Amino acid sequence: KLTSLALQPVITPELVQGRVHLKCAFSRPSSKPPLQYVVVWSRLSTPGKREHIQRDTTLQSFSYVEMNGVNLRLGDTVFCTVTAFTRDTPEQQSLPEESKGFYAGIKFLPESLQIAEDGKEHVLTILSTVPIACPGHDDSCKITLQLSTEDLGKKSQLLGPPNVALSACQVDLLQAPCSESSCAAAALRVTAVTDFAQDGNRVSRLRAEPVGWRDLLWRAYTPKDVKVTVRDLPTGNCYSFTDPHIITFDGWRYDNYKIGTFLLCRSVSRAFEVHVRQWDCGGHRSATACNCGVAAR
């Protein structure tokens, strides 16, 4: 065998005549006589297992393969392996050199989220590693993704509101020049729903599905879900009930039999307060007031 030639193959995405292709490019050492190259394309079919897609013999320092949605689909991780030889002695080959795996499809950054019920917004970036092709019958070079969340776990259906709120139900990935493994990107804000219930840490799944008619490549593709873990934060409770017995946040108990409108609680750190209105409900027998109205800000 010839020695290793430092061909360093690299896969990049490219639009060729409006269709998504992957290009395997490598450095060509100067040699007399000129070298020929065998480029073998493969995809990860199951973890640790490769499936061959295409084999090219070329004098060029690159090779193309089309992402046609059949033998090469979105969601695949693709490799190219390059071997060099001279035409005179084809049995004398260089050591095969393999590219890094190229993931073709939608990526989420970060790939999973850990958030808390504290009202903070977390930015989730959605990007396509392959260019967005224009269908041709209009100018909209974009992919629209429909977003949804699903609570995981048996108790989810009984617990009421969802764990996670999104800043949008749909995002558009618009065509842009490819750079740093992104050919189109959109940002989304994710917030944990504060439910005032001590229901432990819960897990949700965020799904993005392409909508609208597209070519086969996008129509048959659903990106991998994003796992969102919501950390439960303890919440305080205070009460005013019946002929008002009042229990404060720290558990102090007292009664307020007076008639009128009162400030029940107020936050010193944010615009939040609760007023209660109490009317006479004891008549002549006893001086008792009952809750009859509430206003919250």
From TrEMBL:
Record GO cellular component, one term: extracellular region
Task: Kindly provide the name given to this protein in its UniProt entry.
Answer: VWDE protein
Q: Which Pfam families match?
A: Ig_VWDE
Recorded GO molecular functions are: signaling receptor binding
Which keywords accompany this UniProt record?
Disulfide bond, Signal
Q: Which gene encodes it?
A: Vwde_1
- Is Disulfide bond one of the keywords UniProt gives this record? yes
Q: Which organism is it from?
A: Spizaetus tyrannus
The VWFD domain is annotated at 236-297
